[in-house]
Specification:
The chain has 182 residues and is mainly beta. The protein has one helix and 14 strands, in the order αββββββββββββββ. It has one domain. Strands 1, 2, 3, 4, 5, 6 and 7 form a seven-stranded antiparallel β-sheet that branches. Strands 8, 9, 10, 11, 12, 13 and 14 form a seven-stranded antiparallel β-sheet that branches. The termini are far apart.
Length: 182
């Protein structure tokens, strides 16, 4: 019994490391921290209760790529995995492309909206998307895990994760440059 339990644990570790998390490469992301200048085309995703603009970022946190909210003036990025809230000073910022339109679409209950922007995957190869919620006196960026059917975000107190079943999802679609198709 003990040997079979050990083999099972070893096999589970093998599965976790056999499917590593991956960054999504459909959008343009640039390295960021307080020592780098803020790109002029960094995407603003919200506003915190203290009046700071929140930029859309991403971080690899313990094998899971998750969205973060970045306050450029302080250089701090905050986010959460499915179970752990965190802050960091090293992140990547989402920058807009000239040929793409970005907008926030209302959604709920883990529905996958068409053209939703993914930041990457978890260690279990689940795609992670960018969501936001109006709460705590601001519009706060969070992580959308489809299996959780909710937008998860780090509370402004930094000590716990809040879950919302109604939220907005960031989507990107090619610009229509005056060409209409029938």
């Amino acid at each position: 019994m003990y040997k079979s339990a050990c083999l099972l644990v070893i096999a589970l570790f093998g599965v976790v490391y056999a499917v590593p998390s991956q960054y999504d490469a459909e959008q343009t992301w640039v390295a960021g921290n307080l020592s780098y200048p803020l790109p002029s085309n960094a995407l603003i995703g919200g506003l915190d209760p203290y009046g700071y603009k929140l930029y859309v970022g991403r971080v690899n946190f313990s094998g899971t790529i998750v969205p973060v909210r970045v306050v450029a003036e302080t250089g701090i990025a905050s986010g959460s995995t499915e179970i752990v809230p965190f802050t960091t000073r090293t992140y990547q910022l989402l920058t807009t492309n000239d040929n793409m339109d970005y907008e926030w679409i209302r959604s709920y209950d883990g529905i996958l909206e068409e053209n939703a922007v993914s930041v990457g995957t978890t260690a279990w190869n689940e795609r992670v998307f960018i969501c936001r919620v109006k709460t705590d006196g601001g519009v706060i960026i969070g992580s959308l895990f489809l299996t959780k059917k909710a937008c998860l975000l780090q509370a402004l107190s930094y000590f716990y994760i809040q879950s919302f079943d109604k939220y907005e999802v960031l989507v990107a679609h090619p610009k229509n440059n005056g060409t209409y198709y029938y």
